[in-house]
Specification:
Shape: globular
Radius of gyration: 17 Å
Largest sheet: none
Strand content: under 5%
Amino acid sequence: MITAGIYGLIGGAALFIGVLIGLYMKVSKRVVGSVMAFGSGVLISALTFDLMEKAYQLGGFDSVSIGFIAGAVMFVGGDYVIDRYGGHFRKRGHGMQHAAKKAAAGNTQLASSGSAIFLGALLDGIPESAAIGVGLATGQGVGFIMLVAVFLSNLPEGISGAIGMKKTGRSYRYIMTVWGITVIMSGIAAALGYTFLGHASKDAIAATLSLAAGAVLAMIADTMIPEAFEEGGRFVALVTVAGFLLAFVISHLAG
C-alpha cells in the first residue's frame, strides 16, 4: 500500500512540477503541445497493452466492456457538469474555447468557479492514480508502466492548467494549492486502489482496470490530443507515435 501511495504521489507530482513551469517560466506552445502529444501516446499504449489486456485476462469481455464504457461515460458526464459550472479554466484548451464563445456573444467577462476547478482537477487525476494502485496489486509491471505514462502526461497537463487558471486572475497561491491537494489525493487514490480493489475478485479488478482505462481514454480525446494539435501543429502526430512506441517497448521489457 505504501509503495502504491508513493507511486501515486510521484505521478501526481508531475502535475505540480508542470504548474510551477506554467507559472514561472515561459514555455513555447510548440513545446507544450509536443510534450502533451508524447504523453498521450504513452497513455494510449499503457491503457491498451497493460490496463485493458490485464483486465481482459482477469474478467473477459463482459467485465471489460462494462467497466470501459462506464469509465468513459463517467468522465465525459463529470467533465461536462464541471465545465458548465466554471471548471473549464483548469484546462487551457477548454478555457480558450469558453472565452471565444463569450467574445462571440459580446460578453468579455470570464466566469470561473474555484470549487468546480478543484473538482475538475481531481476528475482528471484520480482515475490514473487509482489505476496505478490496482496495477501494482495485480503485478506484472502494470503499476510501473502506468506510473511512467501518468508522469509524462501530467507534466504538460499541469503547465496547461496553470496557464489557463492564471488567465482567469487566480492567484499563484490558489493555483498551487489546488494542484498540491490534487497531488496528495493522487497518492491516496493509488493507495486505496491497491488496498481495496487489488485483492478483490477477478471480475471486480477487471472492471476497475477497464473503468480507469475508459476514463483516461476519454480524457485524452477530450483534452490532451486536441490541445496538443492546437499548440504544436501537425508535427505532434509523430511525437504521439513516438510516445506510444516507447511505452510499448518499456511494457514488454518490464513484462
